Amino acid sequence: MVEHEVTEAQQQYQSMLEQWGRTIPIVKMEELGRMTWRDKEGRQVVPPDDALKRRILREYHDHWGAGHPS
After folding, report:
1. pLDDT for 41-57, tens place per residue?
2. Average pLDDT of the chain, as a whole number
3. SS (H, E, C) 4-37
4. Which of 9, 3, 7 is nearest to 34 (CA)?
5. pLDDT tens digit sequence for 4-32
6. What digits encode the pLDDT tens for the residues 26-42?
7. How many CB atoms lie within 10 A of CB 6?
8. For residue 29, what are the β-bridge partners?
9. CA nearest 41: which of 30, 22, 25?
10. Quick one: pLDDT band at residue 67, thresholds 50, 70, 90?
11. Residue 17, exposed/middle/buried by CB under 10 A (0-12, 13-18, 19+)?
12. Taking the CA of residue 27 as centre, how many other CA atoms within 13 Å lie in the half-sphere pointing to its CB?
């Protein structure tokens, strides 16, 4: 599940997300015993991990219901 992968990546980029939180409106919260970062709309913050970004793009852009099959 992509959401879980984002949370895992956030743990690896924790210090960077802490820095981002000082300049952009994201909040750190605890979910299921882990820290996660979300924007003011409640969406997960995606850390700068290119492989993860490609995975998200494939999952949502190339999904059979998205109208953009690969």
Report:
1. 999 999 999 999 999 98
2. 89
3. HHHHHHHHHCHHHHHHHHHHCCEEEEEECCEEEE
4. 7
5. 999 999 999 999 999 999 999 999 999 88
6. 999 998 888 899 999 99
7. 20
8. 36
9. 25
10. low
11. buried
12. 8
Structure tokens at 63: 């999904």
Two tokens, residue 42:
């409640």
68 touches 62 (CB < 8 A): yes
**Residue pointed to by tokens 């993860």:** 52
How many CB atoms are located within 10 Å of the residue 54 CB?
10
Residue whose tokens read 């991990």: 49
